[in-house]
């Protein structure tokens, strides 16, 4: 029972993620590189780039 619920949650979150990704892809078709990445990957990339920028500025 518990495992089945977990699986359903994972599948459900994957489904919504896929829909969000589709919406994002339709909004940014002129930026194919961004639409290839998932929202998590984009967030990580943005965090990394801002971290690098702050590090460069502090140095």
What would a concise description of this structure say?
86% of the residues lie in helices and 0% in strands. The mean pLDDT is 69.
Beta-strand fraction estimate: under 5%
**Number of structurally distinct domains:** 1
Overall spatial form: elongated
How far apart the termini lie comes to 54 Å
**What's the β-strand tally?**
0
Number of helices: 3
Elements, N to C (H/E): HHH
Structural class: mainly alpha
Largest β sheet strand count, sense and barrel closure: none
Overall pLDDT metric: 69
Helical residues, percent: over 70%
Which regions have little confidence, pLDDT < 50, spanning 5+ residues? none
Rg over CA atoms: 17 Å
How would you explain this protein's 3D organization?
With 59 residues, the chain is mainly alpha-helical. The chain has one domain. Helix content is 86%, strand content 0%. It contains three helices and no strands. It has helices at residues 2-27, 32-36, 39-58. It is elongated and about 50 Å long.
């Amino acid at each position: 029972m518990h495992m089945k619920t977990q699986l359903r949650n994972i599948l459900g979150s994957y489904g919504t993620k896929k829909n969000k990704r589709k919406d994002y892809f339709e909004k940014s078709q002129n930026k194919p590189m961004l639409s290839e990445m998932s929202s998590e990957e984009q967030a990580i990339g943005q965090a990394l780039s801002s971290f690098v920028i702050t590090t460069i500025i502090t140095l």
